[in-house]
Write a structure and sequence with these properties.
56% helix, 0% strand, mainly alpha, single chain, 135 residues
């Protein structure tokens, strides 16, 4: 008489429609062999013609490099969408940040410590126990 005599074996049967995990699951991208073969053929032709491997670039990479250059040139596309008030705000914010950086850069460590000690001395000491009652 084993403790497992009344255990039912086999698969677990669920009521209702079975879920098809593979159909709704993650689909893998298929590799395009033709594109890879074309690139390898072009590379082989260039090497046979006396070209070096350093000169080989993907045309897609050249397009991406052009896009990166245009982004690095400045905020041209970003500034186009700003209102005049937003432009003034950004300029004012940059001026304030530069002023703060210049102010902190001029202070020595000793000056910062003195300022901090003065700040602590001026703080209200809320953690002190107040006197209660007469006297």
């Amino acid at each position: 008489m084993s403790a497992y005599e009344n255990v039912v074996g086999g698969k677990l049967k669920l009521k209702g429609k079975a879920l098809d995990v593979k159909a709704a699951g993650i689909k893998k991208k298929k590799k395009h062999k033709k594109h890879q073969e074309q690139i390898s053929l072009v590379n082989q032709k260039e090497l046979a013609a006396g070209g070096s491997t350093e000169e080989l670039t993907n045309p897609d990479e050249e397009d991406m490099n052009d896009d990166n250059r245009s982004r690095e040139d400045g905020k041209g596309s970003y500034d186009e969408y700003l209102t005049p008030a937003e432009r003034r705000y950004i300029e004012q914010r940059e001026q304030i940040d530069n002023h703060k950086l210049a102010k902190t850069a001029n202070k020595s460590h000793r000056d910062r410590i003195q300022d901090f000690n003065q700040y602590l001395a001026n703080m209200s000491e809320h953690y002190d126990i107040p006197k209660v009652g007469p006297g």
